[in-house]
């Protein structure tokens, strides 16, 4: 699956969003755990197992089976799994394993997309840096040319001023004659 650019991925996200809006608080809670702690779920295996537990519990309820026993958020998932009876444990472990595996694949896909985005950001940053350097060089060139132009204008004004002084002296000299 290629994240949000994949049609199946888009359908899964839309399905998740619709479950968030629905009245079934079990699915809302499970997805709120996902959206609230997405970065933690990506980084911590215990969090992925806990999210898989929440999703599997919702599936249990929706399929008419008994809900999983309460699992304290401060309790390690190993302790929660011990609370299931043998049949529940086998079914629960199967569902948990499937949910965990799927979540792991999603995490890997998200991680790969993040790496690609980081590469693209790096390329854009390098391009932007290069263009900024070119602009800075152009600005420096303009500044140098403006400085030379100002120097030449000053020389011209100095020359004109000297010429005017010379003309005034000449005028005074001719008027005394």
Summed up, the helix count is 6
On the 0-100 scale, what is the average pLDDT?
Answer: 79
Overall tally of domains: 2
Largest sheet: none
InterPro entries: GEX1/Brambleberry
Brief digest:
The chain is an all-alpha fold.
Highlighted features:
177 residues, 0% strand, single chain, mainly alpha, 2 domains
Task: Describe the secondary-structure layout.
Elements (H helix, E strand, L loop, with lengths): L6 H15 L3 H12 L1 H6 L1 H18 L14 H6 L3 H91 L1
What does this structure look like?
This protein has 177 residues and is an all-alpha fold. It folds into 2 domains: 3-122, no CATH class; 136-177. It contains 6 helices and no strands. It has helices spanning 7-21, 25-36, 38-43, 45-62, 77-82, 86-176. α1 (7-21) packs across α2 (25-36) and α2 packs antiparallel against α4 (45-62). The chain is rod-shaped and about 130 Å long. It starts with 6 loop residues before the first helix and ends with a helix. 11% of the residues are buried.
């Amino acid at each position: 699956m290629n994240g949000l650019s994949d049609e199946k991925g888009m359908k899964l996200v839309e399905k998740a969003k619709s479950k968030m809006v629905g009245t079934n608080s079990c699915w809302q809670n499970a997805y709120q755990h996902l959206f609230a702690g997405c970065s933690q779920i990506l980084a911590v295996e215990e969090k992925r197992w806990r999210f898989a537990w929440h999703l599997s519990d919702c599936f249990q309820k929706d399929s008419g089976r008994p809900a999983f026993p309460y699992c304290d958020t401060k309790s390690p998932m190993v302790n929660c799994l011990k609370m299931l009876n043998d049949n529940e444990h086998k079914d629960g472990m199967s569902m948990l394993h499937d949910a965990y595996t799927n979540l792991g694949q999603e995490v890997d896909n998200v991680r790969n997309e993040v790496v690609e985005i980081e590469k693209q950001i790096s390329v854009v940053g390098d391009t932007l840096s290069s263009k900024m350097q070119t602009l800075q060089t152009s600005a420096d060139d303009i500044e140098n040319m403006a400085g030379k132009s100002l120097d030449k204008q000053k020389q011209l004004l100095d020359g004109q001023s000297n010429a005017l002084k010379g003309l005034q002296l000449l005028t005074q000299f001719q008027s005394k004659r």
